[in-house]
Structures are given as structure tokens and as C-alpha cells.
Amino acid sequence: MNEMIRYRDTCRGCKSKRLYEFLDLGNMPMAGGFLSEKDIKKEIKVPLRVNFCQDCGLVQILDIPNPNFLFSNYCYVSSVIGGLSEHFRRYSFFLKEKYLKKTKKILEFGCNDGVLLQYFKEDKSIDAFGIDVSENVTKIARERGFDVMTGFFNKENAKKLLEKKGKVDVVTGSNVFAHADDIHEIIDAAKIILDDNGVFIVEVHYLKDLMDTFQYDSIYHEHLCYYSVFSLNNIFDIAGMKIIDAIHLEMHGGGIRVVACKKDSKKEIMPSVEKFINEEKMAGLDSKKRFSDFADKCKEHRKALICILDSVKKEEKSIVGYGAPGRGTILLNYCGIGKDYLDYIVDASPLRSGKIMPGVHIPIIPQKDFMKNKPDYSLIIAWTYKDEIIKREQEFLNGGGKFILPFPKIEIIPQDAPL
Ligand SMILES: [Zn+2]
Question: How much distance in Å is there from the Cα of 13 to the middle of ligand 1?
Fold first, then answer.
């Protein structure tokens, strides 16, 4: 199984060796590796350790599973999730209004099933196309009528796209820039196809939000990097680019949209960039101490959550999981929440129900069967969708059911209900 994992000893942002390992989440299966019962024997576990680069500030995982293995049959289809579609609809307006002005072409890497591309379909003046490594989702995207290439976004494929399409105003990637081991390859690929005044925009989970709300469940092998504007600014600088704008996003428990362009572009740097970097420094995101404190809090969180689940089980009440996102794999495995705690997990995605949760092997059943066995408690594993879930499951609450919310802080819903 050795070819499945690679280890690196240098920072992928600046090549420094001054890396500080602050959190060890243990041997972890792939967060998105939902299994069939018959495939349990094929499951691999890889150390999940988190490092902080003391030179550029990049937080990163250095244990790297083979990406072909990770993403070739990825189970995450963006369009299934309602909240995401709305985000991308708004993002398409932002792009049209601000950046799709000259060549009127946009390339999205990691385009999934076309969740952003769909919003350019009606506008014949804009040529929107994508690239994604996952064979099954690009097949879905092409069936939906999108112009999508299957492959990694690297210099070689950027040259192919340049030949076919010419220069573009925008290269963008949402929730994908954190997946790559070689981030400079992606930036260089973007530079190949970008017009001189074009912009490279990434949307990533925001390190500051992750740290502030102790979201260790969003740390997994598929996400090799955890960005701040501070670290991205250092990385883009090395790559001959500059960040000109940064915007906070509410999606996925807190994200940032960062806009960069070539250093010699005349585009001006907006005050937002300095504001972000100052706030991050104030929060200690450029120093070791903040990260060792975070690791202590993660251990405390695990202890507190298990304590609640133990007291529910002592009462002989049943608990089921709600939602099977990739981050659920981390929460359940790190805390040791297995079949002895959760009878089953419900999930809306047809790609996940019928499978079992990585590592802990809890069965995943369709969301519509949530109430089938009249559970007493439900742990909201997909806690970033808690508002939708609570709204949808009023019948459960009205019948005396209680939700356990693990993040951003552990809560029982309804709040005044005794355990
Ligand atoms: Zn570094």
C-alpha cells in the first residue's frame, strides 16, 4: 500500500523546512472514501498530522495519499446541495460585474458537475468552461451540456486549453485549491492561460474561522492546505502574483475569496487585503502558540462530546447521525464514535446512502428514512447545514426528539431540553 501515501518534509508554499507539527488526529481513513460493505478490506488509513510553516504561515498536511486514488471516484456532487447553488449563482454575478470584461472567458478548475458553470449557460457572450479530475462527475457535467475536460489543472493541460480557447479573464477554483499538493503548479498553470490583466480567484475554507470555532473536523487528507490571506499573500508573492482583494464568505463554516493577478498588472490592491492580514496577525495566525492552544482545545472538545453521548447511552436512548459529509469521517473517527453510539446515519446524497461511513463503518441510509426507527437523539454531523436540517425535521423535534450539535460549540437543541 506504500504507493498510496507520500510524505513531504518541506512547506508547499515556500519550501521551508521550519515546520511545526501541532496536531495529530491519528490514523485516518479518507474522509470522502465512502465504502460498500464488501470493500471494507480495501480501506486504507493514513496518518493525519497538521503542520504550521514558521516562514510563510501556511497550515498544511504533509502525509499525502495518492490523488488518483482520492479523487477518481469522488462522491461529492455539488449540485445536490441547495445552499451551494445559491452561493455559485451569486458568485457568477460577482464575476460578470467585476472581471469578465475583456476576453469574456472563464476557466473553472475543479468544476465538479457544473454548479458554477450552469450560471453562464444562458449568457451566450461568455465562454465558460471547466476542468476536473474526477471521471464520474465530469461525465455528469458533460451530460448536463457543459464544456468540461477531465484531468488535473496543471501546466500541460493549461497549454492544451490555451491552444483551444485562447486567453481568459478569469481562472477560478472553489473549494479545490486546498486539495493540491503542488499549489505552485496550479498558479503557474493559471498564469499560462490568464490574460495579462486577468485574475486568478480562489475560494477556500478560511483558517481563521477554522481556528476560532475549533473546526478540526474540516481537517482531512483531501484538504492539504488551510489558508489565511497572510499565507496566500506570501505564496502568491513567490509565484510572481499579488493579491488585490479578499472577501469573507459564509459557506462551509467560513471561507475566503481571494483575487490575485500578475504582479505587473496595473490593478490596484484594495484595502481589504491589509485589513485581513492585520486581523490575522492580531489573532496570532503567524505564530506557533496559537496553534498549540488550538490542539489543546480539540482534545477538550472530543472529551466533552463523548461525555454527552455516554450520558445519553446510559439512559438507553437511541442516537442516529444526520448527514455524512467528508468532515463527518474526521469527527467520528477522531472522537471514536462508532456503531456503539450511532445506529445509522442519514444522508440526502444518492451516492452516499447505501454505503458505510469510512473507518467507523456506520451504515448510511436515505435521509427520508430518518424517522423510521423513531430515534431519541440525532447528532448533526453535517452541522454547517444545521438550519436547513432543523427546519426540515420539525416532526422529530415536536415528538420530543433532540439534536446534538457538535460545532461551533456543543449544544443540545432545543436548548432548554434536559439530556
Ligand atoms: Zn512556508
Answer: 5
Within 10 Å of residue 222's Cβ, how many Cβ atoms?
22
Q: Report CA(223)–ligand 1 centroid distance (Å).
A: 16
**CA 67 to CA 63: how far, in whole Å?**
12
Q: Answer whether 168's CB lies under 8 Å from 195's CB.
A: yes
User: Helix (H, G, I), strand (E, B), or coil: what is residue 284?
Assistant: coil
Determine the pLDDT at residue 416. 63
Going from the Cα of 232 to the center of ligand 1, the distance in angstroms, rounded, reads 10
17 Cα–ligand 1 center, Å: 8
Task: Tell me the C-alpha to C-alpha distance, in Å, between residue 225 and each of 122, 253, 277, 394.
Answer: 35, 16, 18, 38
User: Which residue, among 162, 186, 184, 167, has the nearest Cα to 176 in the 3D structure?
Assistant: 186
Per-residue pLDDT, 73:
47
N-term to C-term CA, the chain: 44
* Ligand 1: centre distance to CA 19 (Å): 8
pLDDT at 84: 77
Cα of 50 to ligand 1 centre, how many Å? 13
CA quadruple 75, 81, 84, 85: dihedral, nearest 10: 110
44 CA to centre of ligand 1 in angstroms: 29
- pLDDT block averages, 10 residues each, the chain of length 419: 78 97 94 86 90 98 78 49 79 96 96 93 94 91 96 97 98 92 96 97 95 89 93 98 96 89 95 98 95 94 96 96 94 97 94 92 96 94 93 95 94 75
The alpha carbon of 18 and the centre of ligand 1 are apart by a number of angstroms equal to 8
Distance 304 CA to ligand 1 centre (A): 34
Q: Which amino acid is at 345?
A: I
- The answer to whether 25 and 2 have CB atoms below 8 angstroms apart is no
Q: What is the pTM of this model?
A: 0.87
